[in-house]
Each structure stands twice: as C-alpha cells, then as structure tokens.
C-alpha cells in the first residue's frame, strides 16, 4: 500500500539485534527501507542484517553502545557514508539493571537508566534532526513503555525514564515540527522479549497478566513493528508528539 511505502528511505534502529528492535527493522525493511542494525555486539547485528539481506532487503550492521556519544556519532557518520542520509530514526535500545524498590536502588543503577533511556535518545536525535530539517522531512520514533504511564513498586527508575521519553518526544515534536519532522513514541505493554523474560517466564505473573488483559495474551515483537512502519511512512504524516500504546488493552482496565 503506497501510504506505507518506505522505498528509498534509510532507517537507523538501535537495539535491533533482537526483540522489538529486530521486528521494527524487519518490518521497515519489508516496507522498502534500507535499515541499519545496531546494538553493542557485532555478531548478533550482522546475523540480523544478513537475514534481511537474504530475504531481499538492504541492511548493514553498525555496532554502538548508546551510553557512548562518540559511538553514536560513528553510527550516524557510517550510515551517511554508506547511504547518504537518515530519514527514520528509531531509538529502541534501553537498560534496566535493577528490579525492586527505589529506596534500595544504587545510585549507579539509577544513573545508568537515566543515561541510556533518556540522555542517549536526546543525543542521537540531535545528531540526525538537523539533516532531516534540511530536507524538510523525517521521522523519529522512541520506544517507550506503558511503565511510563503509571506508578511502579519495582520498576521505578525505568518507569521514570519511559515517562521522560514521552516528554522528550513532545518537546522535539514542537521544536522541529516546522521542518516537517514527526517525533512520536510507542509504548508497548508486556512483550515476549529477552528484555522482559524475567516477567513473562514467571508462571504466576504471566497468568495474572494474561487474565487481566482484554486480549488475554502477551504481546509479540511483531505486534510493535508495524506501528513503527505507520509512524515512519506517509500514513503517519500528520501524527506527531504522540504516544501510541500497544498493550493488549491492559491500561484501560481499572
């Protein structure tokens, strides 16, 4: 469908060697985009890039630790060197090194969450936004979480960071909207990824979650990838500063 066609677009996706990030990369590629697979380790990135190329898509792998600004700069310059520009940026990589009450959370863990989940997204967005503004076209997508919409007794700093990502998207949408740049968030619920394995592999937690979710199931990475295609494409051209919740309905239940 033409509204969802990304042919000729270049998309950079952080944290795309697995899970939600990989699904987003694969679905952007299926819509015609050239995709850059990025995470900290080279081998998993190249595995995903090769899989996309083997399927007829165009993909390269560029490693980057999101906590290192120089590595993010390298990610951007390497992409430009390979494909000339960046049309779509997906900030998906995130950290959550601590599970438990905030009263017992080490300062270094709190700082890591804020650095990786907020500051790194700010850095990377501002590395690509000026060139998008020159072309008067671009899309930035930040993968947030429904954790940013409610309080949490065990994921406090993570929830704070994800709420901040929603505000970051709103701020950037206002700042760069005059240049025809859209900035949005996706807020997934519980998705069956390695990142959330501790939650969905717990039988008691999983049963409770599934029984109280209107769709009566956990999410799959591919439940999220298509939303990114919408936000990156002509179909989402009048959507900016928004957070699209994809949680099977769990947040609508009282």
Question: In a nutshell, what does this entry contain?
Answer:
With 254 residues, this protein is of the alpha/beta class. The protein has helices at 19-30, 42-54, 69-83, 107-135, 156-176, 197-200, 203-212, 222-232; strands at 10-14, 34-38, 58-61, 88-91, 138-143, 181-188, 243-246. Helix 4 links the parallel strand 4 and strand 5 (138-143).
Report the top-level CATH class: Alpha Beta
Beta strand count? 7
Proportion in β-strands: 5-15%
Q: Helical amount among residues, as a percent range?
A: 40-55%
Which residues form runs of ≥5 with pLDDT under 50?
A: none
Q: Over all CA atoms, what is the radius of gyration?
A: 17 Å
Number of helices: 8
What descriptive keywords fit this protein?
Rossmann fold; alpha/beta; 7-stranded parallel beta sheet; 14% strand; 254 residues; 8 helices
């Amino acid at each position: 469908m033409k509204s969802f066609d990304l042919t000729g677009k270049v998309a950079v996706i952080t944290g795309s060697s697995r899970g939600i990030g990989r699904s987003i990369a694969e679905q952007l590629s299926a819509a015609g985009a050239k995709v850059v697979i990025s995470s900290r380790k080279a081998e998993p990135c190249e595995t995903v890039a090769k899989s996309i190329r083997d399927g007829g898509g165009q993909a390269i792998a560029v490693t980057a630790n999101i906590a290192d600004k120089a590595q993010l700069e390298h990610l951007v310059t390497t992409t430009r060197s390979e494909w000339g520009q960046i049309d779509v940026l997906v900030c998906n990589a995130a950290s959550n090194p601590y599970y438990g009450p905030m009263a017992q959370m080490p300062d270094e863990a709190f700082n890591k969450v804020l650095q990786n989940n907020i500051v790194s997204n700010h850095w990377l967005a501002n590395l690509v936004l000026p060139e998008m503004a020159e072309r008067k076209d671009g899309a930035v997508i930040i993968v947030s979480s429904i954790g940013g919409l409610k309080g949490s007794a065990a994921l406090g700093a993570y929830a704070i960071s994800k709420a901040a990502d929603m505000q970051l998207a709103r701020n950037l949408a206002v700042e760069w909207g005059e240049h025809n740049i859209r900035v949005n968030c996706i807020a997934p619920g519980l998705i069956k990824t390695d990142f959330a394995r501790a939650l969905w592999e717990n039988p008691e937690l999983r049963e409770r979650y599934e029984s109280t979710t209107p769709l009566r199931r956990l999410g799959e990475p591919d439940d999220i990838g298509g939303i990114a295609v919408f936000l990156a494409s002509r179909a989402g051209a009048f959507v900016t500063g928004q957070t699209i919740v994809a949680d099977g309905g769990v947040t609508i239940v009282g």
